Amino acid sequence: RNIMKKAIKLKREKYEKDGPDDTLICEMFEGNQFTDDEIVDQTTTLFFAGIDTTGHLLAAIMYVFGHHPEYQTKMINEFRDKMKCNFDITIDNLKDENLPFVNAIIQETLRLYNPAIGLFMRQCIKDTTLGKFKIEKGTILYLSPYVSTQNPTYFENPEVYDPSRWINNEKQEE
Asked: For residues 73 and 63, what is the distance between their CA atoms, to the nearest angstrom?
């Protein structure tokens, strides 16, 4: 918490000296809607939420590799082939098109072992139609990532871990 307080203090000083930039923290400074303690609380929550979900994803990938060592080998080989043993890894050479199998492993792991378990609630802001269903303004909708990703309408054999479904598969992009 103290580290975050120092970071917010430095950001506020820069904000007051140079004006706003396009960060969420500067948005929170605008109009003094939040105290620095409230900003610290919110940024700490976001920070740890990111760590938790990333840690969950990495643990799930390790679990998959334990059950499918052939995927681990294929992923390592893709890194070696595409990176040509260049350890100057940048965002550009980590793009999906450069490492399609690595991306497929990540996508399939998120599909089957999504860290965002539970339900998301959304309130309909206007009368609308979703498929054959009419939804009135004010209706609360509950969305489940797990149920969506286990639907055989969208994922053939949804209970099977299959990263190949994410490589050159137009149905997933629809």
From this structure: 14
Cα gap 42→37, rounded to integer Å: 9
What is the C-alpha to C-alpha distance for residues 159 and 49, in angstroms, rounded to an integer? 27
Residue 163 contacts by C-beta under 8 Å, 6 or more apart in sequence? 71, 101, 104, 105, 107, 108
Residue-wise pLDDT for 115-144, tens only, equals 876 788 889 999 999 889 999 999 999 888
Angle between helix 100-112 and 36-67 (nearest 10):
100
Q: Report the C-alpha gap between 68 and 138 in whole angstroms.
A: 46
Q: Which residue has the tokens 């120092």?
A: 6
Instruction: From 112, 99, 100, select the one nearest 68 (Cα to Cα).
Output: 112
Radius of gyration, CA atoms only, the chain: 21
In sign, the C-alpha dihedral spanning 73, 74, 76, 81 is positive
**CB-based contacts of 165, cutoff 8 Å, min separation 6:** 104, 108, 155, 156, 172
Signed CA dihedral, 173, 130, 53, 44: sign only: positive
Residue in the structure block whose two tokens are 């940024």: 43
pTM of the model: 0.66
